[in-house]
Amino acid sequence: RRVIRRGDVRLIGTFYIYDRHSSELREISNVAAHRGQDFIIWSPDQSLIATIARNGNVLLWDAISGELISTLDSHATQLRFSPDGRELVILTPNIYLELLNLQARLRTTYIAQKRFNDAVYSADGKRLILVHSGKSRQVEVWHRGAPANEFSIP
């Protein structure tokens, strides 16, 4: 229903949402402090937009109103929403992986042996598949555990 595109970098972080049903084009961000958005992703229910600012911070936006909801200090390089949209994986350029529980606003940091290049959730959200950087491109599968509902590293 909606298409998002990154704006002109010279406009200091502007991006737009176009609603093809109403033909409305809305400016979402023009925040000088963030100096542009380097990564943009929708939540599965399309209620949130998560972006990575050039300084590595993660910004959460209300997709309907365009309002900035939250700014998280980070060094993010990649973001992935869980299939139910309740969790956001934040990959960093070092060996840290952050999981943000969006409902509880709880942020958990994991320290890995190697840097991760990408992450993908299984369709049921019970497993997180992580791809390491470098030549090996090793893959790890993390399993959601009960009752703490945290991921275990095999």
Rg on CA atoms, Å: 16 Å
Strand order of the largest sheet: 4-5-6-7
What is the mean predicted local confidence, pLDDT?
A: 76
Q: What is the overall shape?
A: globular
Cα end-to-end separation: 39 Å
Largest sheet: 4 strands, antiparallel
Q: What are the segments in which pLDDT stays under 50 over at least 5 consecutive residues? A: 1-12, 30-34
The secondary-structure element order is EEEEEEEEEEEEEEE
Supply the number of helical segments. Answer: 0
Helix percent band: under 10%
Number of strands: 15
Query: Helix/strand-derived class?
Result: mainly beta
* Strand proportion: over 45%
What report would you give on this structure?
The chain starts with a strand and ends with a strand. With 154 residues, the protein is mostly beta strands. Strand 6 and strand 7 form a beta hairpin. The strands form four sheets. The protein has a four-stranded antiparallel sheet, with no helix packed on it. It has a four-stranded antiparallel sheet with strand order 8-9-10-11, with no helix packed on it. A four-stranded antiparallel sheet has the order 12-13-14-15, with no helix packed on it. The protein is globular and about 45 Å long. It has no helices and 15 strands. The model is unreliable at 1-12 and 30-34 (pLDDT under 50).
